[in-house]
Design goal:
single chain, about 35% helix, alpha/beta, 11 strands, four-stranded mixed beta sheet, 6 helices, 3 domains, about 30% strand, Zincin-like
Length: about 240
């Protein structure tokens, strides 16, 4: 169940979207999305006033972290002419209808997205079908590209993960499990190659050093001296890498 709310913080109006779920038991999670704005994931029975109170408590962080005036708060429409990020570039999409497809399909040709949707699919159903098609496409590309980059950086560091998984995560770009499994957020494939390399190297380094100690950053710097500028850039563009 989805709803919208709004609070005033000084001269700023913070509009947020609440996604309720009966699978979420206690915690309320706030994320910032460059296109959808402020997103709140909450347990199904959470009172609206409790959510507003939490937004109000985090308002200073929200405004400071990603100034609302700098966010593109227009949600994706998934129409011809719109662009999506891929490997650091904005790629324009063209959408057409076809009688011989059962679901929306995405293909990538000459730095353009070609999208086919079933004839007669309209409104929210069309929007959701195209979005799901892009999720599948990005997930497949992320698996392919990240495996290549992990192989390359693994050879350089002499560190080998036990497995590599692609996940749909809001808060993290990647994680390293105690068993050596690396999990990557599919959205990282939207970023430029230098930032993808940073994320991959960061997680591989955790195979050797678990925390973010001076030893950890020294290991990262030993093979990527400009990691700090890449890290800063990822923080800047991160909210805009989404569907």
């Amino acid at each position: 169940m989805t709803e919208r709310g709004q609070i005033q913080y000084g001269s700023s109006t913070i509009t947020y979207t609440v996604n309720r779920s009966n699978r979420r038991k206690k915690t309320i999670e706030i994320t910032l999305d460059g296109h959808a704005g402020v997103l709140v994931a909450a347990p199904e029975a959470t009172p609206a006033e409790d959510i507003a109170a939490i937004i109000n408590k985090r308002a200073k962080w929200i405004v400071r972290k990603t100034p609302l005036s700098g966010l593109d708060l227009h949600p994706r429409r998934f129409v011809s002419g719109e662009t999506l990020p891929y490997m650091g570039r904005q790629v324009r999409m063209h959408i057409d209808e076809a009688n011989d497809v059962g679901k929306a399909l995405v293909s990538f040709r000459h730095w353009h997205f070609e999208v086919l949707v079933p004839v007669g699919l309209e409104g929210p159903a069309r929007h959701d079908a195209i979005r799901r098609a892009f999720l599948r496409w990005y997930g497949a590309r992320a698996t392919e590209r990240l495996r290549e980059k992990v192989r390359r950086w693994s050879r350089l560091l002499g560190l080998q993960p036990t497995d590599l998984l692609i996940r749909d995560q809001r808060q993290r770009w990647a994680s390293c499990a105690p068993d050596g499994t690396l999990r990557f957020n599919w959205r990282v494939i939207m970023a430029e190659a230098a930032l993808i390399d940073y994320v991959v190297l960061h997680e591989l380094a955790h195979l050797s050093v678990k925390g973010h100690s001076a030893e950890f950053w020294a290991l990262v710097a030993s093979v990527m001296p400009d990691y700090a500028s890449r890290r800063k850039r990822l923080r800047e563009v991160g909210p805009y890498l989404s569907l």
